[in-house]
Amino acid sequence: VQIVGATGYGGIGLIEQLLRHPAITVTSLLAKSDTGKLLSDFFPHVRGICDMVVEEVEPQRVGEDADLVVFATPDRVAMQYAPTLLERGIKVIDYAGDFRFSDLDAYNRYAARQPSVGGRPHLCPDLLKQSVYGVPELFREEIRGADLVGNPGCFAITMELALAPALQAHLVERQSLIVDGKTGTSGAGKKLSVATHFSEQAENITPYRVAAHQHGVEAAEVLMRYAGSRVGVTFVPHQTPTVRGILCTCYAQLSKTISGKDLYDVYFEGVRS
Amino acid sequence: VQIVGATGYGGIGLIEQLLRHPAITVTSLLAKSDTGKLLSDFFPHVRGICDMVVEEVEPQRVGEDADLVVFATPDRVAMQYAPTLLERGIKVIDYAGDFRFSDLDAYNRYAARQPSVGGRPHLCPDLLKQSVYGVPELFREEIRGADLVGNPGCFAITMELALAPALQAHLVERQSLIVDGKTGTSGAGKKLSVATHFSEQAENITPYRVAAHQHGVEAAEVLMRYAGSRVGVTFVPHQTPTVRGILCTCYAQLSKTISGKDLYDVYFEGVRS
Amino acid sequence: VQIVGATGYGGIGLIEQLLRHPAITVTSLLAKSDTGKLLSDFFPHVRGICDMVVEEVEPQRVGEDADLVVFATPDRVAMQYAPTLLERGIKVIDYAGDFRFSDLDAYNRYAARQPSVGGRPHLCPDLLKQSVYGVPELFREEIRGADLVGNPGCFAITMELALAPALQAHLVERQSLIVDGKTGTSGAGKKLSVATHFSEQAENITPYRVAAHQHGVEAAEVLMRYAGSRVGVTFVPHQTPTVRGILCTCYAQLSKTISGKDLYDVYFEGVRS
Amino acid sequence: VQIVGATGYGGIGLIEQLLRHPAITVTSLLAKSDTGKLLSDFFPHVRGICDMVVEEVEPQRVGEDADLVVFATPDRVAMQYAPTLLERGIKVIDYAGDFRFSDLDAYNRYAARQPSVGGRPHLCPDLLKQSVYGVPELFREEIRGADLVGNPGCFAITMELALAPALQAHLVERQSLIVDGKTGTSGAGKKLSVATHFSEQAENITPYRVAAHQHGVEAAEVLMRYAGSRVGVTFVPHQTPTVRGILCTCYAQLSKTISGKDLYDVYFEGVRS
Known about the structure:
Four copies of one chain form a homotetramer. By secondary structure, chain A is α/β, with parallel strands linked by helices. In chain A, 33% of the residues lie in helices and 16% in strands. In chain A, the strands form two sheets. In chain A, strands 3-2-1-4-5-7-6 form a seven-stranded parallel beta sheet, sandwiched between helices. In chain A, strands 9-10-8-11 form a four-stranded mixed beta sheet, with helices on one face.
């Protein structure tokens, strides 16, 4: 496996997991910052475990020594490399939003909301059809056979796992979904901002992008498959004084009464199949 | 003014405010713990400002040297003293739930949900008729003339101020109210608990009493006056790693479309009148 | 391995480590609280990984199904069981202070400072001679052959690893040691206290047991072996608004000048041998 | 009073204090960022209390409508304006290090350590003689008559108040001073940095500029006046996960034995005179 974007919080989190996996070898680490240093120089907890040098992202280096390239990069990076890599028979996983959607309309709705995309057009819309959404609890079989996987947004996967079972069982009105999200600061990455400045964030809880966050759009696209038709999600994310983790409190209008036991069954079956 | 319950977080917060008020004199401090000590012995930030001795709560001492007694005590304390105090012409403010409701049915719905009351009967239900709810933004005139004030629950006042204007203007469906509450740990007071143990609460956000918190019942009683008839509030409080402050994110189904400017007017008029 | 005291923070931390070890089997979990429940009922992060039932600590149960018993218990628990267990050929590791010292005088100096011991006499002083201090960086060989290991106090191991190399190389005046310690709240365990109440600890750093903490005594006993004669340690611990981790900033008067490179060598050789 | 640097944490903290003072009028607010906005637009807690417009720092505007100009700005700003202001009879207080020292040698020792000064020469060294150090507990009389005050560094004042009484009473060896400092993140101001990024600072305590922080130099200069000759201060600051406040734990070798009562007297007399 080659990791592009190895020096961010997503990259190091991924590397921690991969290093423990008996069948996976991390072959190279690429990034735009901290290149030329050992990964363990700035993430000392992997000293002695992963002392590889971080290399500059050079186009010809991407995919060179790996069967799989994982992009832990911002939106619109993986789409620059995916067509060539797939042609060369190299599998691709993207942690950003480039391949989370199976059609261009859905991507465009997401792109209109994602500030870092700013509505710019997709570079390889043909690949969307073959891309698979990387939530193993929901799409395990498709992921197994996939060459191109778009991993979910952090808030999006949370609300999808919470709401998909209820929508599939027609327990709730599909237009009534409300999600109140609470996130830690690591979700915003290493990039410095006033919102994640310690003096500002400690002792504060701050709603942002109220009913306008791109992960609400993303979840609505995925949940539609379980509801049978378009769903309405009102999503309000909040930045909280925690580092890791997300909590989504989800509300919906019940469309029929159900016992606690049956509800439990819906959720345990729903999540597992 | 005499303060009963002077050593808790509510008591000291109140004392801080009263000490700055030019027309108010704090005459005595009563409590159940830390009696015999100076208040400034255990709250050093008032040293030199309030070095009064904290006295034991003796029944005959309550009301002795004051025109007004404020109870910063748990539920079911103020109701033991209020009838006698009012007969003696002494005004009463309660920070707990004993006098927040104007009729016994409303109190009983609250009492059924409040764990510390456990559904026990009110000791002086006749006084409920004359008690006034202590939210100055909503009931300023009534409070001015009142002898007996029941101050609101911390979550309750937050959702009342947020939702009363919209309900009064018939902007939202009165059965569709959803409140997602986030509170600091000081709301739970000085009492030690696993939920407010630092090792457990840091880096965690925890929902509790889901759709079963007594402040949801309290707010529903108050909001009914603005909606014209009974309202439905689904209230989910969350404990967060902050000390002070409450944030309630409120959701409701719009019953008509309204421009941003008109909405702004509804809120600024609603809160002020 | 049998764990006594499986439900505390020390116990679960230990279990997390042991579960990953290929050559160790956790055979039973004993405790005084939460008995009769699955460990994963109250530590949900080990669900599916360690769903063993926590059993009551019955004397005859201790050591029943294990080659090694680990006591993650307060002071004065392991000493009640160690003589019998060792006679039966079962090895013992204690996380408290019962077997950290090789002679009774040293133990008594520690016991005089440890509030939970209160100076009460050791129950099996004969065993102190054979006990080994559980810091592998310093006593790896002795630990390998030991039947009875006393694991170090959290602050003690930190200052020992920091100061032993310098003392062994006679770099610093052995009477001039100053340690300024900063600890997270998990060190105080699950026991509720005002000092670890979230509302009190957040935004605060609090020195406690100034120059009187039992881990200062413990470290002084161990460091004496490296200095050749008695050392003087002034230790001031501070409680900080973090959960995990300890930082000790150590100061000492240099007894000779040394280059940065030589200092580095002293530390890397010292720690490794 | 005119405030230069009104939009930083130092500026707003100062404004909060001045607004409560009955004999002081804040006449204008100057700054380099957020100019043209109301102060209350970005510090909403002063809405209705201080709704003044923040103006650009234009040279001719500085001192225009005030008897006193306070510079809550970085090093090397106040020294650009002080000569002209003093000539015009306008008093000056600086929150940075430009006027903390009474002779150029002392300033130069500080300037060599302060990263933002980088050893550049002072612009008006003649004024150092007339400047007064702004610690009222130590220099109240001098401050009363002063036209030019250099307010102390945050860590410096802490260690000065802690150590001046002991040095004046010759209780401690003046070469043996050790200060272990713990600071909140507001001391680093509004400027974004990795060290104050929430994801990095939460759950962490980090020593920095070990024995090389400019406030150690500053305190040594001031403490010399109390010790009678040069003092030695080893100062290690730590960044902690708190916002406000500083704690300095100070250590020194006693030069004579003293009873607790006498020590108490030294400290209460020392601080008060």
